[in-house]
Here is the input.
Amino acid sequence: MRLVLLGGPGSGKGTQADVLKKKYNVAKLSTGDLLRGEISNNTKLGKQAKSYMDNGELVPDSVMISILDKKTTEFEEKKQGYILDGFPRTVPQAEALLEMLKKQGVTLTMALLIDVPKHELVRRLSSRWTCKNCSATTFKDPDGNSVVCPQCGGELYQRDDDKRETILNRMKVYKKNTQPLIAFFEEKGLLEEVNGFGSFEEISGRIINLFNEKDIK
Ligand SMILES: [Zn+2]
Here is the structure.
């Protein structure tokens, strides 16, 4: 399985990736972790990446793809599947990824979108409250009545990041960046969607059903 996982903030895709990782014995590759790994091992690619980061610049796609190429080739040799979390984020990155796989003589299994309706994402995200006393975060319904920290009984407040307006803005940015990516994978016939409305377990169940249908192991 070679999987790209797509989903907005609050879609829970990171946690779903963890479930798939266990169930299917695949690796979860996040570009942040891969970068840190190359840098701490002081590899040639790590040094290249670090030189950009030290200058406060983004690591170019070409460097990121080289790192991914190296890593995924290792997995192909071990015959182990993987899930990409957080990559690609743009159409050029997606094009480069498919090109990379083509050179490896393999294909992407699918780009899986966890599609959560906007109102549900906003509800999930804006239900996060922080304790004034111990900084623990907790979830409650936006109109819920629980007003104390479950850890210490302290008073709860909502950080600016967790406020509805901030979240709506983040969603707008996410949508603007991700719509073209979704369209790209759809055009290539690689896009699959699962309904991201419901509990965490319900969503996992839908993903696993989809994999069963497609005979993905
Ligand atoms: Zn507290």
In short: The beta strands are 2-6, 27-30, 82-85, 110-115, 128-131, 137-139, 156-157, 191-195.
